[in-house]
Amino acid sequence: MLSHSTSKPSRISAMRFAANDEGAQRVSERQTVHVRQSAIAGEGVGGQTAEARDKSTPTGGAGAATTTDGSKTSGGNTDAEGGVAQAHGSGNPSIVAKKASNGSKPAPGSPVNLQMKVASTAYMPPDLYLLWKFGCQLTKGRNVTSIAFNPKNKDILAVGYGAFEFDRQHSGLVCCWSIKKINYPERSFKTPSGVTAIAWSTRNENLLAVGTFSGVIMVFDARKGNKIPIIDTTHAAGRHYGPICKLEWVSREAGRSAGNMESLISLSMDGRVTEWFTLKGFDCTDLMVLKRPRKKPPNPIMKKKHTEPLIVRHAVGTALCFTDDEQNIYFIGTEDGQIHKCSCSYNEQYLETYNGHTASVYAIKCSPFIPDVFLSCSADWTIRLWHADREKSYLTMATHSSAVNDLAWSHQHGAVFACTNESFLEIWDLEHSTLDPVHVETVCVDTTMSVVLFTEESDTLMVGDSGGSVYVYAMKNFPSVGTSAEEATKLTSVLASCLSSQLPT
């Protein structure tokens, strides 16, 4: 069953704390080794030899006492290897030094003081820790095209399997995985065409919308486990005739969905953004029909003779993203590389157009901390950072020599995002560097990384590949998480820094 259980803690949270404890244990072990090496070299922890230390150590009282074999005792703790007494359960070198030197402060130039300084300022690079992966014989060899967490039950993960290439088409598959059972999905639904997009309903958490390569949209009830969709657009008027690139459930008061009702928004490669209403069948209306920009006449003299062609060529939509704070404004990425800002209230024109990419835009993601700030990735090998109020991008980041398939913002860190690139998963921290990622993970050399998604409540992310697997990683050694206002300030500082670097000197 897909019902949420509160009796067992989430596996993601448990593994997250386990990963943090492992990192802390490694730091503690390295600090202890530094102090022990100094003692083995013939120097005491205070820079003295063992003989001088024996003379200066009192024979009674609350201080450390020297035994006949050269080891010291302090409160019942002994270390015969190097004569180092440690505090209970502590790997802090300052505590070790105070115990070993009988409470005296180490000299400024002593080995202990230097070791303490190095250990306290040691930089632990960001890293990823593989927790597990979702996959079975049913999904083997299928390309992962979309991932979505259930909005109410965060332990349930829906994964869509299909392809956007025409010559790779076969039947599609949707699997509902549970983190309590990673070897086989709780639910699975097969579709006649490859799955290209999925989205959970925000009002009814059991409804899962599925978009396919053929343009058909289906809605399954995951609670019942019925293999047949409860509704689909196969014979609906106004159905799509191109692959579905994106699906999103939105709740808004504008337009026909008055009364704050939920509707389903779809973007297809046929150039249409369509709103679907599920109260009585699949009734729909087009929010936007994408058109290519008009080309200027090649010669001003020929301007009067220039006429519009009889057939207006539609633009191909490839990416869609609604702003989180106002589900009336959305961004569309196109095959031409342009990004358009649109409103559900105006279907005749764009509110703004952003130029920068030179190839298809594969994904657009708004920041969870500042909705007007968004990222875009493209087949032109770049990622761009934008603000809705500025036509020009703030920052352009180049990746490996290949298309950037997908990206996702972290819900914990305001300036951190991840992107997929061939066989690599890149983690960027814009507060640390805008030139290179802070970590590059080679997930699998035999497959292409296609989708990435962060969890909302922890430093964990999911990565899907072309082989049918979804890898679950925990982030380690990343900056501490601040409040929402603090994380938003970090991103604002990045924008200000990028803007200042673009101003003429």
From TrEMBL:
Residues 64-76 have a biased composition (Low complexity). GO terms for cellular component: axonemal dynein complex; dynein axonemal particle. Keywords: Cell projection, Cilium, Cytoplasm, Cytoskeleton, Flagellum, Repeat, WD repeat. It comes from the Eukaryota. Residues 1-10 have a biased composition (Polar residues). WD repeats lie at residues 354-396, 397-431. One of its GO terms (biological process) is cilium movement. PROSITE patterns: WD_REPEATS_2 (PS50082). It is found in: Cytoplasm, Cytoskeleton, Flagellum axoneme; Dynein axonemal particle. InterPro entries: Dynein_IC, WD40/YVTN_repeat-like_dom_sf, WD40_repeat_dom_sf, WD40_rpt. This is Dynein axonemal intermediate chain 4. It comes from Mesocestoides corti (Flatworm).
